[in-house]
Design brief:
five-stranded parallel beta sheet; FAD/NAD(P)-binding domain; binds flavin-adenine dinucleotide; 2 domains; four-stranded parallel beta sheet; 10 helices; about 35% helix; alpha/beta
Length: about 400
């Protein structure tokens, strides 16, 4: 029996387990520092109050119980001994035959921007998104209570980073504010969303179709877009730029960069400047044929050697590959190299509106794009729920048997 350890219950880790489960003679252990799987891709709706916590988090223990050969352990891994094939937390160690590192990434609050970490929120962790959601709710509540006739105060919400996550959060909040303007009155109109990026464009690295249509939608929602705007300092009240006037803000979210999970610092192998692991053609680190790394904690490159953006999609593709590669290695066969390619992109742009592209030639926008994106996320969430239901039935069944 081979023991396979999956570290990280994010998009990559869960997909790896789904792909591994049917192989014979294996026992899988999933380890995560949190008891839940966080659906980061839905964070934009959670922050803006459109989704609830049960829409963006599921219990890992219940999910694992949906399999016959998977156990879950809540542990924060602090070291990985590649030679001894052991991982450890502060108080426990686990040995493995094969390991998949799927520990993801966190927000990179750049240290060269003074005050950024102290004065802004990230969305890569549920607790951070939760705090930001509370701030947003409180602001709306405060606005709702503005006395009739009183001069309304103006507020700016700043989003640093106009990549996929920043754009989605900005659009959803602006959409909510527009809707509130209809129900709680014009006071919500005194809140302006600023989307700030140092690049010359929003969504750098995506196609002109995606950029142009996203821009149009954001402007229609009233989002103020500041490109070529390099943030140099943030204090409790203002955002300062390398050039131009400072922007007063009430709260700020930063989505401008990531760095790999701190665990990668404890692993002796090659890394890039944001601590992502450098893998070989079969996604192994340090040439170790039993240890695979997938998802956001890895520097992913396409067939031409270009670095790919970290996405759930890529985490899942690399997870499926790692599962197949483990099966090949167990059968003493050498796996084919991993081919990383982006199949498509969908950007949620507030309410029932999205922009998307599949295989670069199918281009959709508006309600149809929203429906396609929704179908993908619904399919994903439904799959998680079905597994939990199976786990529940397994548990009840075991109880009846043991009576
Ligand atoms: C707002 C937002 C919108 C996004 N939208 C999209 C989108 O539309 N499409 C898309 O493809 N991608 C999107 N992404 C990106 C996507 O969420 C990430 O690329 C994806 O989560 C990466 O998956 P992963 O499995 O590598 O890591 P994660 O999903 O981050 O999972 C890593 C797991 O490892 C655990 N972990 C970390 N360190 C340790 C440790 N030391 N010990 C134990 N456990 C540990 C963490 O708790 C976590 O559960 C979005 C991201 C955000 C923030």
């Amino acid at each position: 029996m081979n023991k396979i350890l999956v570290i990280g219950g994010g998009y990559g880790g869960l997909r790896a387990i789904e792909s591994l489960q049917n192989y014979a003679d294996i026992a899988i252990v999933l380890v995560d520092q949190n008891p839940y799987h966080y659906l980061q891709t839905e964070a934009y709706g959670y922050i803006a109050g459109q989704f609830d916590v049960h829409d963006v988090a599921i219990d890992l223990q219940s999910w694992c119980e949906g399999f016959l050969n998977v156990t879950f352990k809540q542990m924060k891994i602090t070291s990985v001994d590649l030679e001894a094939k052991i991982v450890s937390s502060e108080d426990e160690s686990i040995a493995f035959d094969y390991a998949i590192l799927a520990v993801g990434a966190r927000t990179n609050f750049f240290s060269f921007i003074e005050g950024l970490r102290e004065n802004s929120y990230g969305v890569k962790f549920l607790n951070r998104a939760f705090n930001f959601r509370k701030e947003f709710e409180e602001l709306l509540y405060h606005k709702l209570n503005t006395k009739v006739g009183e001069n309304p105060q103006k507020y700016n919400i700043a989003i640093g980073g106009a990549g996929l996550s920043g754009v989605e959060v900005a659009a959803e909040m602006a959409y909510v504010l527009n809707n509130y303007a209809k129900t709680i009155g014009v006071r919500a109109k005194d809140i302006t969303i600023y989307l700030i990026d140092a690049s010359a464009t929003i969504l750098p690295g995506t196609s002109s179709f995606i950029i142009k249509n996203t821009h149009k939608r954001l402007e229609k929602l009233g989002v103020k877009i500041l490109t070529n705007a390099f943030i140099s300092k943030v204090d409790a009240k203002k955002i300062f730029f390398k050039e131009g006037e400072a922007l007063e803000y009430c709260f700020m979210i930063f989505t401008g960069g990531i760095k790999a999970s701190p665990l990668t610092e404890a692993i002796k192998c090659e890394k890039n400047r944001i601590n992502q692991l450098i893998v070989d053609k079969t996604l192994n680190i340090s040439g170790d044929k039993n240890v695979f790394a997938i998802g956001d904690c890895v520097e992913m490159r396409d067939e031409l050697g270009a670095i790919l953006p970290p996405t759930a999609q890529m985490a899942e593709r690399s997870a499926e590959y790692a599962a197949r590669a483990i099966k090949s290695r167990i059968e003493q066969k050498e796996p084919e190299p991993f081919k990383a390619n982006i199949m498509g992109i969908f950007v949620a742009l507030g309410g029932k509106y999205a922009v998307g592209e599949v295989f670069t030639f199918i281009k959709v926008q508006g309600y149809s794009a929203y429906l396609l994106k929704k179908a993908i996320t619904y399919g994903y969430y439904k799959g998680l729920k079905l597994r939990i239901n199976t786990g529940f039935k397994n548990r009840i069944g075991n109880k009846i048997l043991s009576v």
